[in-house]
Amino acid sequence: MRPVPHAAKLAAALLFAVACSHAQADAAFDARLKHLEEELRCLVCQNQTLADSNAPLAEDLRREVRELAQQGKSDAEIKQYLVARYGDFVLYKPPVKPTTWLLWFGPFAFLVGGALVWLVVLRRRAGTGDNGIVAEPAPVAGERAVNARAQALLDERDK
């Protein structure tokens, strides 16, 4: 066997080190993209993150996020770009600000409103002794006369 020169060993070691560092950089880059895609919402699915969605638009957005990241944009810059283009809805956790208050606090407001309406109904029933059964109102004096006249006409017809 012919001995391998030291330069060749050194070159092989350098190539191996570069390949390993490139693989680590790719893994870190992919992890960054995955984390970013989990913070973004699929605009079609609405209840899935960009990472979880299989919709064609989600694929386009993932490709766009990758291109922006490859251009050297930070995560904040990428999010800012997407928010400027699609609005706060693209963020899976939109910021709390006046335009998103209904989104953040609306469900709680509806819950409290429903509880208040239920409480008012229960108090009215308890105060009036109403058990929830609607009784037919008693006829008024004028109605009694009309009903008596109608009954008399029906009785005459049957004779």
Distance between the termini: 133 Å
Q: Gyration radius, to the nearest Å?
A: 37 Å
Low-confidence stretches: none
Number of helices: 5
- What is the N-to-C order of secondary-structure elements (H for helix, E for strand)? HHHHH
Q: What is the average per-residue confidence, as pLDDT, rounded to a whole number?
A: 80
Biggest beta sheet attributes: none
Task: Walk me through this protein's architecture.
It is a single chain. With 159 residues, this protein is mainly α. It is built from five helices and no strands. The longest helix has 33 residues, at 6-38.
Give me the secondary-structure topology.
Elements: H1 6-38, H2 56-70, H3 75-86, H4 101-128, H5 141-158
Write a compact overview of the structure shown:
The chain is mainly alpha-helical.
Defining traits:
159 residues, mainly alpha, 5 helices, 67% helix
